[in-house]
Design a protein that fits this description.
The protein has 614 residues and is an alpha+beta fold. Among the domains are: 163-297, 7 Propeller (Methylamine Dehydrogenase, Chain H), CATH 2.130.10.10; 555-614. It has five helices and 36 strands. The strands form nine sheets. A five-stranded antiparallel beta sheet has the order 23-24-25-26-36, with no helix packed on it. A four-stranded antiparallel beta sheet has the order 3-4-5-6, with no helix packed on it. A four-stranded antiparallel beta sheet has the order 7-8-9-10, with no helix packed on it. A hairpin with a 4-residue loop joins strand 25 (327-333) and strand 26. Helix 3 (560-584) crosses helix 4. The chain is globular, with a radius of gyration of 32 Å. It starts with a helix and ends with a helix.
Length: 614
Amino acid sequence: MRLLADFVDVFLSCVCQTRYCVTSATHFRFKMAPSTPLLAVRGSNGTSMIGGPPDCVENTTFKRDERQSRFFTFSKDGALFAWCNGDKVNVVNVSDGQVVQSLDLPKTACLEFSPQKSVLVTWQPYSKTQESAHGDQNLHLWDVQSGECLKSFYQKKMQGWCPSWSDDESIAVRNVNNELHFFENNKFDTIANKLHLQKVTEFLLSPGPQPSKVAVYVPGSKGAPSFVRLYQYPNFGGPTSALANKSFFKSDRVVMLWNNKATAVLVTASTEVDKTGASYYGEQTLHYLAVNGESAVVQLPKNGPIYDVVWNPNSTEFCVVYGFMPAKVTVYNLKCDPVFDFGTGPRNAAYYSPQGHILVLAGFGNLRGQMEVWDVKKYKLVSKPQAPDSTFFSWCPDGEHIVTATCAPRLRVSNGYKIWHYTGTVLQKYDTPADGELWEVQWQPCADGVFPAKPVKYQAAPSELGSTEPKPAQVYRPPALRNKPNTSSKLHEEEPPQNMKQLPGGDKQLSKTALKNQKKREAKKAAKQETKPDTPQDKQPEPEPKPTSPALAGAVSGDPEADKKIKNLKKKIKAIEQLKELQASGKQLEKNQIEKMQKESQLLQELEDLELGI
């Protein structure tokens, strides 16, 4: 018995040690895995940081600043965090909360780090004093490590206040009096190069490695068109040295957008006023320019404003939200050919995940906060959550979570934020107290490659707060129609999603609706062939009766709109048959009458499609 007891003790000891080793290994592996980025929150109760899912609790490493901050920002890699609280500009390490710099700049309104976090840029509103008629320099560039002011400039306007850097900081550029001033290696006392074009109002430096490229916009004047040109630094010899050039009319302002690989630029040109009166938003056109010299106008099949244009992070396709409500959403490739059409719906914004594997279509602002989450690879709908009254949306760098917020001053009621999983579940919800306001939330950035793309999930993530997917609501019916047959009349004509990729034979892939109608037509023709009687050889066939006009056949679908269209089509077809009889009798027809007759086959096809849909 003693030996047995000793054996049991040794066995249990080994089991415990093994469990401890497994637990330690698991703990080590957990510590090595990247944690979810933090969420910085700024409001009337100060500045704080919240840990990401699954905990979503306040981060104690960063000491909450109870004073009201005017602005905050992260460095590009998320290692540094800076904010101005009306007294000082503070810079801290996010990992340990240690203060890196504290600058006495009480009037600072904007902050920004250079890409390699070696320079901190601060801007305060420009003002003149009695001592200085020209005012004081209000744009300052600071060395982050030493706290030394590297250079100060005059920058009167807030628009375009911050210099632009290449990713390696070898080039920095500012727009000064219609000239682009280029600086090299953060030496701001010497202008290394200039690009002078008359009335340059917008520019955009390319992302990625060298050689750097710059897109510039010059508005048209005195009947001359506006144009956008792409240059490669430092080749600024003139129009002939440009990589690409695109000119266009109807442009008061532009928004330019490089793809991540710096191979192409999308330009949304806008006018303040639509002279035709068709749109409150003015007129917009979308242009494409590539560094190989190619350019094109992106053809949008639905009229109306362009709400949003975004590149997929893979740089091979882009998404456009456009057209009068309900808006259309289409994905295009680098040849500006449509790849996938998401149909129509209440949307005005699109957001690709940082990995480019998920696309969120949303309707914020004056819309009701509907969101559609799509698997980009399969073009399959994942979820349809709803975030009403949202004024802000942002993807977490992990590609798994998103944040929506209702912020002041856009909305001063119901302020707060929600952290979601893309499958539609709410993981964390924060409501600002009635006497407070939420001003801004911002995810901590991460370096590229820290969070690779994961397989897309379709099952909702577990959460105590549940999902916000709206339940299908019943259509309101007036009391006078409640005892009558149900009709499917709609306020807007809805278009379903449609794959626009080319098939191997060269034809476009048909949508589900078109394919269904095609199958119905083929089945109907086959049925007619089977029921057609055979004519005996020894008997003369009787003369076939004159074909009955489709206008004489009545069809009631129960849909007032469909019946109205069928009635109008039959009326047009009957008029064409009357014109045929007049022509057969020898009467000379006019040009417009002949054109009507040429549309007969088209009208018959439309009528057949409508009747098949009944």
